[in-house]
Amino acid sequence: MRRFLYIVREAWANMRTNRTTTIVAILTTAFTLACVGIFLLLYVNLRHAAGWLQEDVKIMVYLDDGVSSSLRQALEQQLKVDRMVSEVVFISKEQALKEFRAQFPADSHLLEGLGENPLPASFVVTLAPNYRSPESMQGWADRVQTMEGVAKVDYNQEWINVLTELIGYIELVAIGVGMLLSAASVTIIGNTIRLALFTRREEIEILRSIGATRTFIRIPYFIEGAVLGAFGSALSLGILRIGFELFRQQMQLTGRFSGIESMLSFFPLSLCLALIMAGMGLGLAGSVVSLLRVGEGRT
Amino acid sequence: MDAIIQLIHVSKCYDRRPALSDVTMEIEKGEFVLLMGPSGAGKSTLLRMLIGEEQPDEGQIFVHGRNVTKLKPSEVPYLRRKIGTVFQDFRLLSKKSVFDNVALPLVVQGVSERDIRRKVTEALRAVGVDHKKDQPPNSLSAGEQQRVCIARAIVNGPVVLLADEPTGNLDPERTGEIIELFKLINARGTTVIVATHDPQVVKQVHRRAVTLVDGVLTQERRSAERVEA
Fold first, then answer.
1. With a cut of 0.90, is the ipTM above it?
2. Do A211 and B152 lie within an 8 Å CB cutoff?
């Protein structure tokens, strides 16, 4: 018990002795990890948006203008029994016109001059959740395109493709920036530990002379590194949360992207805990690097 | 009698300058040995080798049956737990109380709280500073600090006590007291080796004395002999 208390007390004493360095290390680690966090937050939200778009994607199956009622019914039946389809809604030409007028009242006069309703009848198809991947959708659309009475199959695949590609790039950047800044955090914490080792070199010498094992001498420094990393990580999450809320508020105020701010989300609690653990791991790595490089003596 | 320490043809050089040259000696269990010689004679090097802090370039060193030159780094702490060390500069932790300083060797070994209290109290009583157990070492006199250092060295009942110039920072009166303390510890069965160049110590201790000059063992006085004043 005394041994455990000694180790914890030593770690605490290390941090108190080099208070300024400890605070600077926590702050620098926090800002460094916050930079990584920005990318991670962007990545998480874009993934979320992509998932949401994927969930919401509707495939429009436009029908030929002269399609007979029986062919339309046969097509509808065919779509409904398709195992890849979860919902089919028929939109008649009249309904399409009504919806257009409701959605674009200022432009409705454009259709007046045409005399006949130019909008085609269509089926709005929602695919089953298992078949919403870009490949499945493309395959399904290609198949339906060949059916008799179908003029065109359309869906916002391009958007999804662009978003997927963007997520891929952000993922790469996040990994790159993450690795670089994590290495910086390890170095910052490593230097703090090195300073602690230097400050307490006489004490380490005494401990060695009375038969303390390497592990016993090192554990307080491992704890110190882990605590610095965890605090740095927790503080970075705090900074990110404040920044995130300010950004959301700003979006709400400007009103330019109304609705989007409600879709933005911060890291879930589980990810926050994982990030704190990751910070702890980085701190521990800093201690290990420092102890390996400087060492606390040969034996 | 059994040899607790054996040095067999031990040599050590620093930058081609010999610190120890072909030293061979045996110290028996329960002996009190003075390791004499001027500064730079190799006394501290020899003591550092006994606790595994230095390795000889040549030769073998046995302490309590273990070949120190063959120990793995991970085994060295366990050797040191059998050897108490006393330093000229005391090497006490200024931020810890006298009690906590003396308790340190027991703490690193994971001794129970109850045993720590009992053993530290006994050790402090043995060296006569038990009434100062809650004070920081810096508030003590040099003689008292050296007593605390000795208490720390004997608290876990070592088989050998090594002291490197233990009276170097003390006045003659305190020197006498510390030497008496070493004699007392030796009388209880602990082998004591004191490295010194202090003539007062040599006069006061009529025990075996070995002299090192430039790393060479030059002279040996058996314990029966008396030193001329």
1. no
2. no
Residues 6+ apart with CB under 8 A from A95: none
Tens-of-pLDDT digits for all 299 residues of chain A? 667 777 787 778 777 777 888 888 889 889 888 988 888 888 888 877 777 776 777 888 999 888 888 998 999 999 999 999 988 999 988 888 888 888 777 776 776 666 677 888 999 998 888 887 778 888 898 999 899 889 999 887 677 777 778 878 888 888 888 888 888 888 888 888 888 888 888 888 899 999 999 888 888 889 988 999 999 999 999 999 999 999 888 888 876 666 666 778 899 999 999 999 999 999 999 999 888 876 554 44
**At CB < 8 Å, which residues of chain B contact A?**
51-53, 73-74, 76-81, 85, 91-93, 95, 103-105, 107-110, 113, 116, 152
Do A214 and B107 lie within an 8 Å CB cutoff? no
Whole-angstrom distance, CA of residue B12 vs CA of residue A299:
19
Distance, in Å, from the CA atom of B146 to the CA atom of B174, rounded to the nearest integer, reads: 9
The helix or strand, by DSSP H or E, that contains position A154, with its residue range, turns out to be: strand A150-154
Smallest CA–CA separation between B177 and chain A, in Å?
24
Query: All domains of chain A, ordered by start, with CATH?
Result: 2-53+160-293 (no CATH), 58-155 (3.30.70.3040)
